[in-house]
Structure formats: C-alpha cells, structure tokens
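May I ask you to comment on the folded chain given beneath this request?
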Amino acid sequence: MQQLAGRRIWFAGIGGAGLSGYALLAAAWGAEVAGWDRNETPYLAYVRDAGIPVTVTCEPPEPPDGWEVVVSSAYAGRVEGKPRAELLRELVGLRPSIVVAGAHGKTTTAGMIAFVLDRLGRDPAFLIGGEVPQLGGNARSGTGWLVVEGDESDRTVFALPAEIAVVTNVELDHHTTFASTADLERQFERWTAGVPHVVWGRELEPVELDLAVPGGHNRENAACALAALELAGVAREEAEPVLAGFRGAGRRLESHGEAGGVRLLDDYGHHPAEIRATLAAAKAGFDSRVVTVFQPHRYSRTLHLRQEFLTAFNQADVLVVMDIYPAGEAPIPGVSARDLADGIRAHGHRNVTYLGNDRARVVDHVCELSRPGDLVLTLGAGDVSQLGSDILRRLDAESPNGGTTC
C-alpha cells in the first residue's frame, strides 16, 4: 500500500473532481502531498480531512522546491508540470483496475461497480468523477480492485492499462478532440484491443431489476456494471440485490430538498441524449410538472449539437435557458444561448425563456412560476447547480405554511 513512498507531489487544481481523488490516493499510497486551487470546492473537504495542506489563492504560488508538479487540464499553460494524465496512468498501473469510459453514464456505472464491491466486503479503491454519497466521496484507497472513471474528452482514457474496460456507449460529445464519431470509435477499438476483458454497453440488454435510481438509462448502466462485476469475480445473483440499493452519484438527479411543496433536483446532463434521458426519468419517476433551468456547456458543443438540442427538452414543461458556460473555450461568433432558446421555441416548445447569466433574475423567475407539486430541475455541467440553495431559500420564505427546507 506504500507504492509511492518517498515521492513528494504538488497538485495544481487539487480541488477538482479528478485531481482531488488523485491526491487522496497518492497520499494513501505513501506520497507526501500538497496542492493549490483558485477556488474553494466541495472536494477540498475530503482533501483536508486526509491531512493534505491546501492553498487557495487567485494566482498559483510557486510549487515547493524539489516536488513533482501535477497540473489539472484547467491550468495547463499557467503552471509548469506534468499533465494529470501521466499520474493517472501510473496510479491505474499500480493495481488491477476496472476503467469505465463512454459518452454517457460513466460516473453512475463506476459508482455502481464500486458500491457493490464495497458492500460485499471487497474493499475497492476508486477514482470517480463525481461524489458518490453512499461511498463517502469521489475517491478512496482500498486493497481490492481500483475502479476508475476514464475520460475521453482529452484522450486520457486511451492510455490507461485496464484489466477490465467498460465502454457504456460511443457518441461524439467532444468535437474539438475528435474529427468524427468514426474517429472516436477507432480510438476505443484500439484501446480495448489491448485490454484483457471488455464490456460493450451496446451489446447488453437493460436490466429488469427494481433499481433505486430511475430511468431507462440507469438500467443500461446497471447492465454494464453487472457485466464488469462478473468479470471481476462477483456472481450476478450476489451483485443484483446489492446493486438495487444504489441511490446514485452526485449531480445525477440528485435531490437538493423541498420547500413550499416544490422539489428541487440537480443533474449534470449536458449532451442532448443525456438531457432526454434525464427528463424522461424525472417525468416517469416523479409524475410532476418539470421546470428546467438549463445552462449550456461549451460553445463548441452548442454549435455542433444545435439540431439535437432543439428537441431535447420536449418533456420539460417549462424551460429557462442561461448563458453558455464556456469551460475555458473562447466564444464562437453566432453561437449563443439566446439563439438556442429561440430555436427551441421555434421547434414547438411553448414555454421557453432566455435569462442570460443574471442569477437573481433566474431565481426570481423560477420561484414566481413554480407551484406546489412541481419539480424544479437544474441541468448542466457548469455551475448551474449553485442556484439550488437560493431557489429553495426563496421558496421556503414565500411558503404560506412557513415550511422548512429539507
């Protein structure tokens, strides 16, 4: 368990979903670890709880002399050091690993696998790109399988030496990284050709289990998880009853509470296919009017998937569109959230409002139109989830019964 003993590693961007997990594993496996981030993030609580010193400042400080520097992709070019992909490859190579990749469902599927292994006493290690509340975070060091959520957005996953690879689905979502779906497909085929055991989601039927997480997409995720678990030595009849109790990962139809008779959920969905699946699950699982606040993610995605976005919100009874979250991209002329909202309206949606990035106005609008029994859904891969607490406080204050937020 001390494979990294004697190493001193400083992380630039240690508060991110990825690097925070790498830091936790590196520390648990013997390295001396510290790091910096520009902002406070929820993941830093886990980092500090592990005794790792963190600096939060607007500008990165000088790394300690003689330390290895690992840099988040968010700070590439601003801080000198090796990219996160190099350390991740090293961590994965230290353990028999299950690597979960694909356009959609990676976080949930990886969470399902780690959850079942944990509850069955198999003591997994895991690195997951989102919090799994039932597992107490996004990363952990254990003595069993290492379960990793891979990322094709920067081709990182294709360098990982997996023992078991899971490809949930193949769909073009990163248009600045891959030339086409065929290009992406070729990359997955080349990677999996060198992996001893491979699970392809497209070859599986959705499970018929009574799952705690709603939606047909989660039945597909569960099928991938069960297939991977069988390859890892867990019998299906042993895994199924445990998997049924998995309650989901953070920002995947995650409940943020209820006030004034209105429930608020948050979801990371940002690709049209994910949005359709999330809205279908919300409709089927909650039988409510759905008020959706959507924050588009990346100018390139908004440009290349515009046609798919125009019909992705058909099951949202009310839609509020915020400005595009750039995720480091420069604006593209002619690409805007206002244009997207206009296009959705022109394709037949009867209740679409563009409100830009005026968050107070968004909160006011959502609270004014919401009524008891509604479901409010904040949706997107940016920081739209931060609106949830403001919406709940406002609804709670205006509740005629003086209700309290859960």
Notes: Residues 8-83 form a domain with the Rossmann fold fold (CATH 3.40.50.720). The chain has 13 helices and 17 strands.
